[in-house]
Write a structure and sequence with these properties.
The chain is built from 8 helices and 17 strands.
Length: 387
């Protein structure tokens, strides 16, 4: 009985072993146990995001200032400005115009214009189209405009239509029978243009911009360095006081007095009724002086006048004395400038003053005077004897 139990027990123990020996060999696998380690308390709170540092951005280099536009050799330092626009050339050739005659603004009573022909206008003048010009008045810059179309403008100031039509040698007319109302606008323009054989027209440019330039007298290329513009001052100052004191004891005044008194002494009694004695002239037309100052208030020129011009038609006597002097190291240096300028400036920055004059009372003559720049414009007018 005990033997049977032993056998059965051994079977139970050895059975699984015997079964295992009957199986195919298996590849051994290494079991790796990973132990998860909890982070230290509050080391990296789950609610916060760890910031990511971006690399510092490099500063962009400052933009370089654009190089100044080069100034062309044909840049214009001075041009008249009037009702016609910017007068690029007051002494143009009629052949510079082309096409039909048309109206055009201008200071004259009668006008006729043609479009400018780019194949005939000198290249340096034709090149001004599209450029910008600064316009100046009595005391400085007023505006900046662009140059538009160019025109050739002929003008005549009459004084009436008879003078426009008479004397051309083609169709003589009689004053007594002339009827100005019988002439059409086309006929008037035709006759005005015919007069260009005696008097050259102007090459004028149209300012394109709408900015008001009222009071403009002259213009220059805006790329040129800014000019120095003087301002007239009638206030008494040290310079005007010293100039008048010098004049009071000058040989110029003494000679003027002596010459006039000699002239007056030779007049008969009847003629003396029309002339004043010297003391009256010296009192009524005493010397006065004013200055021209730059933007810093420094006196550059002193202008002075004395006496009166009573000459007319070859008669009378002028006691008028005028002087325009430069102030150089507190001394007065005479200039060649005429008195009564509308404005004074240095257009080309050469240290020489330009003076602009308006003599429209004497046949519409305007001119620029300086040691280095010369320009003038006037308008054809029939001769009128003032006597």
């Amino acid at each position: 009985m005990r033997r049977i139990e032993l056998v059965v027990g051994m079977g139970l123990l050895l059975g699984p072993l015997a079964y295992a020996l009957t199986l195919e060999p298996q590849t051994e696998t290494e079991l790796v146990i990973v132990h998860e380690v909890a982070p230290a308390p509050e080391a990296f709170p789950q609610s916060e995001t760890i910031p990511v540092l971006e690399p510092a951005a490099e500063a962009e280099p400052a933009a370089a200032e654009p190089a100044p536009e080069p100034i062309p050799e044909d840049a214009i330092a001075f041009a008249f400005v009037n009702e016609a626009g910017i007068v690029l050339d007051p002494d143009a050739d009629p052949s510079w115009g082309k096409g039909r005659l048309r109206g055009h603004p201008g200071p004259a009573e009668y006008r006729a214009a043609k479009r400018a022909d780019g194949t005939r206008v000198p290249a340096e003048l034709w090149a001004q189209r599209g450029r910008t010009f600064d316009l100046y008045g009595r005391e400085g810059k007023l505006c900046t405009v662009r140059i538009g179309d160019l025109s050739v403008l002929a003008q005549h100031n009459g004084p009436d239509l008879y003078e426009v039509f008479a004397g051309d040698g083609v169709d003589p007319i009689d004053w007594d029978t002339f009827d100005p109302k019988s002439k059409s606008r086309r006929q008037i323009r035709h006759q005005v243009w015919r007069h260009t054989t005696d008097f050259n027209p102007w090459l004028v440019a149209e300012p394109l911009d709408d900015e008001s330039c009222e009071g403009a007298l002259w213009a220059r290329d805006s790329r040129l360095p800014a000019p120095v513009v003087l301002t007239r001052s009638m206030d008494a100052n040290e310079h005007t006081g010293r100039r008048l004191a010098q004049f009071a004891t000058s040989e110029e005044l003494a000679s003027n007095k002596s010459n006039y008194e000699e002239y007056y002494a030779e007049l008969d009694e009847e003629s003396r009724e029309y002339y004043d004695e010297w003391d009256s002239i010296a009192a009524e037309h005493a010397a006065s002086a004013w200055s021209w100052r730059d933007a810093q208030g420094v006196t550059q020129l002193v202008e002075m006048t004395f006496g009166v011009d009573e000459e007319g038609c070859g008669e009378g006597y002028s006691t008028l004395i005028t002087n325009v002097d430069r102030v150089v190291d507190e001394a007065f240096v005479p200039t060649e400038l005429m008195p009564n300028a509308v404005t004074v400036f240095d257009a080309d920055n050469d240290g020489q003053w330009e003076a602009l004059y308006d003599h429209s009372w004497n046949g519409d003559v305007n001119y620029l005077e300086s040691a280095t720049l010369e320009a003038a414009w006037d308008i054809l007018r029939a001769y009128e004897c003032p006597c």
